[in-house]
Amino acid sequence: MTIRQFRIFIAVASSESISRAAQELYLTQPTVSAAIREIERHHGTRFFERINQRLRITEAGKELLNYAVHLMDLYDEIENVFQNPDAVGVLRVGATANIGSFYLPEQIAAFRDAFPQIRVNVRVGPTEKMEKMLLDSSLDLAVAGGIFHSPLIERIPLFYERYEAVCAPEHVLADRTVTLGEFMEQPLLFRERDSGSFEAFHAAVAQFGKDVEPAWESYSQEALVEAACRGLGVTILPRKLAEREFAGKRLARIVLSDFSFRNTFYLVRHRQKFRSSAMEKFTEFLLRNLQQIPSGTQDPSGG
Fold this sequence. Notes:
By secondary structure, the chain is an alpha/beta fold. It has twelve helices and twelve strands. Strands 3, 4, 5, 6, 7, 10, 11 and 12 form an eight-stranded mixed sheet that branches. It has a two-stranded antiparallel sheet with strand order 1-2. Helix 1 packs across helix 2 (18-25), helix 1 (3-15) packs across helix 4 and helix 2 (18-25) crosses helix 3 (29-43). The model is unreliable at 298-303 (pLDDT under 50).
């Protein structure tokens, strides 16, 4: 297969459309169709199924796509380095909300000062989205907490962060010591179910026979803080955020007598992705500045 065929295959697989791929690549539809037929003929297998005039990528096609994406990353890196030796390239970094709010800005600023020739693009979102973007090569690496499901994802533990149970200062549980059961009898304010913090907390309380049924679910952590401040329920917050709210006397601490929760944050990357110079530099930078968990340590995300 040629580089041109790989680019056509990736475009068709991404759009599941010959016409859209042709438009994206500024090629004719017959040219794109001929390239896909040649790829399938060369490998002796079907990479797409034609169903109701729509293309659907097969399992074999998904496997080839994984290789094709990483090969094109490597090819583009080679072109970039040797056409412009002074340019290290663009680094695409993902982060979950807590990391993106309290840790990554400082690290990105320091990294930019150390390596001004590397442009860093950041995407903040839930753990599930970070995993999908790593798998389809939309991200080079991510810093995230929570649970990752794909065996293609490699996680390097960086540090733990404790979470605090909180409520409004006038809430009945404010500044009290209670059990986990008493805490969870209150209306619960939580992040969305595909967020890393929700999945990790749910797994932790499941060990105590508890289930999490939020009264509020939100992609915005600030929305949960405001709801808690207005006495609409209780929640858990990363310690850095909770301490900010305690200092402003907007929230009060709830002490759980029989339960504590911490989330593990990881440097996350695709096991098979080509490691560019920019990725290696950023990885070394984060391990030097953020890693507090000894390499090789196994730790569940909760408790």
